[in-house]
Amino acid sequence: MMKKSKVFLSAIALASAALVSSQASAVEIINNTTLELVDNFAEADGFFAGGQKGNTFVDNYSFNLSQAGEFAAGIFSVTGNAKNGLDITAFNLIDSAGALFGGTLLSTGATDQWSLSTSSLSAGTYTLQVKGSILSNASGRYSTNIALAPVPEPETYAMMLAGLGLLGFTARRRNKKAAAAALAA
After folding, report:
1. What is the DSSP string of 82-144?
2. CA 3 to CA 121: how far, in whole Å?
3. Residue 93 phi/psi, 5° resolution?
4. 182 falls in which pLDDT band (50, 70, 90)?
5. Nearest alpha-carbon partner for 143 in 85, 76, 57
């Protein structure tokens, strides 16, 4: 009976060690990249080779905005089914003060898709952050796009108002001429 107990306890110890070692093998992969906006647009891809099931990742894409504007970004990852590839768990924009703008999850499963937008982003340094986990030993990939629509400078508004004023003046002058011609006839 004592011998069976020792064998049983040894089996439990071995199983526990295997469980702990498999949990300890999970790794958080952190990637930091600097992006350059070209014509107010940038794109980036995340790729994870096979054999990394259970690992998590945090990809940080830093970029500078030279002027204020409306910001929009999207991310998607497509796999054969919900058990393969990547699970994107967060899509955030972080400013230099650490303020967080969270993205919106549009779909999850075989296709993970997020969007993120803000209408009043000031000039400065920002980080677009992608977080997720690797679901299988197959490789996984995601793609993200960033776009900025600059806010017009005050001079642009002044020129637009002057142009509208000139159009209004011209239209009023034509109306007066047409009214005078109608009275004369």
Report:
1. TTSSEEEEEEEEEETT--EEE-EEEE-SSEEEEEEEEEEEPSEEEEEEEEEEE-SSS-EEEEE
2. 71
3. -115, 130
4. low
5. 76
